[in-house]
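CORE FACILITY INTAKE
Project code: CF-77B
Contact: R.S. (postdoc)
Sample description: multi-component assembly, two entities in total
Requested service: structural model of the whole complex
Turnaround: standard
Below are the sequence entries exactly as provided by the requester. Do not edit them.
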Amino acid sequence: MEIIKFLNTLPGACAQGLIWGIMAIGVYITYKVLDLADLTVDGTMATGGAVCVMLMLQGHSAGFSLLVAVGAGMLAGLATGILHTVMGIPAILAGILTQLGLYSVNLRIMGGRANQSIGVDQYDLLVSLRWVRDVPFYQNPIFVTVIFVICLIAVLYWFFGTELGCSIRATGCNEHMSRAQGINTNTSKILGLVLSNGIVALSSGLFAQYQGFADVNMGRGAIVIGLAAVIIGQVVFGKIRGNFAFKLFSVVLGSIIYYFVLQIVMKFGLDTNDLKLIAAVIVTIFLAIPYLKAKYFAKPVKRGGASHA
Amino acid sequence: MLKIEHIWKTFNVGTVNEKTALQDLSLELNEGDFVTVIGGNGAGKSTMLNATAGVWPVDEGKIFIGGVDVTRLPEHKRAAYLGRVFQDPMIGTAANMQIQENLALASRRGTFRFLKSGITRAEREAYHEKLKVLELGLEERMTSKVGLLSGGQRQALTLLMATLKKPKLLLLDEHTAALDPKTAAKVLDVTERIVMRDHLTTLMITHNMKDAIAHGNRLIMMYEGNIIYDVSGEEKKKLKVADLLAKFEQASGGAFANDRMMLT
């Protein structure tokens, strides 16, 4: 019975992993492509949901609300970008400042309340955890979010192949070189942060619909989950050589794995109050694996390397 | 092509490390000039190049490139006129990007970047031909990450990137100093060929006096933030290392034996 109960939780974990995977793609853009640690994410992950839910409560469609939510997230990214580039505040601090400010902004958006719920029966939601089973496949949140993920990755794959996208990648890779080649690195960073936070807000809007409410604390620790997804994806699929789209895809898979691991751990008598600690431990483990592996378990290379073995 | 008028630059103002790196420096380069720059450590050679490239603003004076006043232009805007190769092979290229992507970035220097393709098929074919000039076989590895290349290969690639779109001025900041002698000679050889082929106006800093004499049509020696010796044409061709050493000793009052060591 226990096993069946556990298996029953897996579709939910998968849907959650997919939605948070979208957020993780946003984190990937700042952390990996732009080489910045952007902590704005914790705030944006609530802003998107707050905007989306409030607009839907006022009768706007889910699609329109999501779009505005993305715009709100982009504004948050713009704020961090300006703090970082124009005002010269280190990226981590700039993100923390925006995140802190967003807490109040998010409360204002939600009309001064810490959470706002949106019932699946009264509103036309795109995704809901009530639809994980026993609905036509096109209503299933897993199906819907997979479509979102595929579209998002396709757009990003195209974008990072354009001149503008390439200049953002170059900025993350080598600022000196980028400026010598005529790239305004400040613009690149701001663009990257705007794009990233827009994606995070999209994820947030979807997640608020999925869980049926927006909460001012729903973004707490989001950056950790995002990093977890990025790093798990890298540890598990890093060996496979793939293009940029594959890398983004492995981030989403990393997020799903993270939620599966979380489900498994919860089976051992821990409850939702322990989630943050579990998250921290899981991320610590995956962060430490590559380092410890290289340090203590590296096999000595045969003389002349693998080609001579 | 380049006109530097009475520029001054002081670093770390008001601290014990205050240093006036450029003192009323003026220099004019004609189109097609290939100028080698020598001088001891702290003479202001790199500072002059960085001032020209706009890494930071100068305190006083003006800089013109091709008749345009660039004194107030930020680094990325001046890049439209400049090709640059740095001393550190890691600085000139993006390690996580492919060879062809690096070239594509360089070919868009000075253009407005938007949503057009970052690299086209026609470009790939063109780069294949251009890479052959380097004679390093890089044309067969165009999709390799630049991080996999050796220092010499990266410098050669940076040089190609700097000249891919003909710059009004090529700035070479001791670009062979970090390489082993054999590789350095090779990179210098490619430099000479490209500069001659495209008639590039070039400023090349070097620590090697022989190279400074062997290359270019003009040589300048710097000392304490200014030019103390400027020689060109026939006179430069007849120049010998011993002459330069004598010049340097004369300028520095013979007191700086260490600096002299650095020059040889």
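Facility notes:
- The longest strand of chain A covers residues 115-117.
- The interface with chain B takes residues 159, 161-167, 169-170, 173-174, 176-185 of chain A (CB under 8 Å).
Invoice: internal transfer
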